[in-house]
Design brief:
Layout: E1 3-8, H1 15-28, H2 36-42, E2 45-51, E3 54-61, H3 66-76
Antiparallel strand pairs: 1-2, 2-3
């Protein structure tokens, strides 16, 4: 089966696409669920990969908030 890749701004995604994106993130168990939808909507672009009409993989180009950036840089030394 072939894969269909869609790349778009969060504002251009349907509610179903956003829900699928959020669901797959939560399934991974590595991201805090609190405030997740807001962080998804803040992303520069979302990547949704569908197979047979079902979202099977995701990715994002993020726009992290300044506090997060500062924390990452501090941890890097």
């Amino acid at each position: 089966m072939s894969l269909e890749t869609t790349i778009k701004k969060p504002a251009d995604c349907s509610q179903e696409e956003l829900a699928d994106f959020e669901h797959l993130i939560n399934e991974g168990g590595e991201v805090t669920a609190v405030g997740l939808r807001g962080r998804i909507l803040q992303a520069e672009k979302l990547v949704l990969i569908n197979q047979a009409g079902r979202c099977v993989a995701i990715g994002a180009i993020k726009n992290p908030n300044p506090g997060y950036k500062a924390g990452v840089f501090n941890k890097a030394g």
